[in-house]
Design goal:
Blueprint: H1 12-17, E1 32-35, H2 38-42, E2 50-55, H3 92-109, E3 110-120, H4 125-133, E4 138-146, E5 160-167, E6 182-184, H5 199-209, E7 215-218, H6 225-232, E8 236-241, H7 244-255, H8 259-267
Parallel strand pairs: 1-8, 2-3, 2-7, 4-6, 7-8
Antiparallel strand pairs: 3-5, 4-5
Helix pairs in contact: 3-4, 5-6
Bound molecules: S-adenosylmethionine.
């Protein structure tokens, strides 16, 4: 397989070889990091082309009191503050609105039987679950990411995050049957993004639900972990990220994955 650099123009014949993407719409080339607001950018994607959405939105769960979620006493979708991840200071209402609107787009752009795997924590999982369900996606399971050792907390200290699994309709056939719903992989320490996820964890998720040559959408791609995992496992991706600095980091990380590695990993998954 020939790999394209992210953002590089792809001739129709080659693109069709790589998954039969519709040429009639405005979908950008696959294997691309798009810099922009995912709600705006997802509207430009063709319907029914993705095998899976794997994403890690800002959880907006930073505080215990709704009134103190905003930075400098404001509640807002984006802030001009480098220390704050965009959209991470939303109220529960704001988060619900954002995720429900995302889920409507996910349902539209997924193939029938396509999958959604969405990260969240214990505080906001029920809100996220309701928002996704309201877009008529089918609730399949809750996967626990066991970080293998605990972090902050008082009585029972935090050791896990949650990945919600939804499908468009019944859900396509599993690619393998040997993965349980508790996945134990240590977290990233000192990564390039404050909430960077381990590539190995995303690769494990991909290996269960994405067919060979499948296409993955990550509308909150941050530093590009989903794209790196897609490329390493011989899959295709479209990533969207609002912050230009992270778009640049994501593009560099993807470009650094040797094309030959994708086939190697596919053989040894
Ligand atoms: C939790 S982080 C994802 C981190 C990623 N999993 C990684 O490994 O690097 C969420 C990302 O979504 C981005 N974001 C927030 N709101 C967005 C929006 N409306 N459209 C696109 N990206 C957005 C943030 O800038 C942030 O980088």
């Amino acid at each position: 397989m020939h790999w394209f650099q992210p953002g590089q123009a792809t001739p129709e014949a080659e693109r069709q070889q790589r998954g039969g993407i519709s040429m009639t719409g405005t979908t950008p080339n696959v294997d691309t990091i798009i810099c922009g607001d995912c709600l705006e950018e997802m509207k430009k994607l063709d319907p029914g082309i993705f095998d899976c959405v794997i994403t890690d939105p800002p959880y907006s769960s930073g505080t215990r009191k709704e009134g103190s979620k905003g930075i400098r006493k404001s509640m807002c979708r984006a802030v001009d503050d480098g220390d704050w991840i965009a959209s991470d200071c939303l109220t529960t209402n704001g988060f619900t609105w954002l995720m429900r609107n995302c889920a409507v787009e996910w349902k539209r752009v997924l193939k029938p039987g396509g999958h959604v795997l969405c990260f969240i924590d214990w505080r906001m999982y029920s809100v996220l679950s309701g928002a996704i369900e309201s877009a008529d996606l089918r609730n399949q399971a809750m996967i626990i990411w066991n970080k293998t050792f605990f972090g902050m907390g008082t009585h029972f200290r935090n050791q896990h995050e949650i990945i919600l699994h939804f499908t468009k309709g019944m859900g396509s056939e599993a690619q393998r049957h040997d993965v349980g719903n508790v996945i134990s992989i240590p977290p990233i320490r000192g990564g390039v993004h404050p909430t960077e996820k381990p590539v190995e964890l995303i690769e494990k998720l991909i290996s269960v639900v994405v067919p060979p040559e499948g296409i993955i959408l990550d509308p909150f791609i941050g530093s590009g972990t989903t794209a790196v995992a897609a490329r390493r496992t011989g899959k295709h991706f479209v990533g969207i990220e609002q912050e230009p600095a992270y778009c640049e980091i994501a593009r560099k990380r993807v470009a650094a994955v040797p094309a030959s590695l994708s086939k190697w990993c596919e053989n040894f998954k």
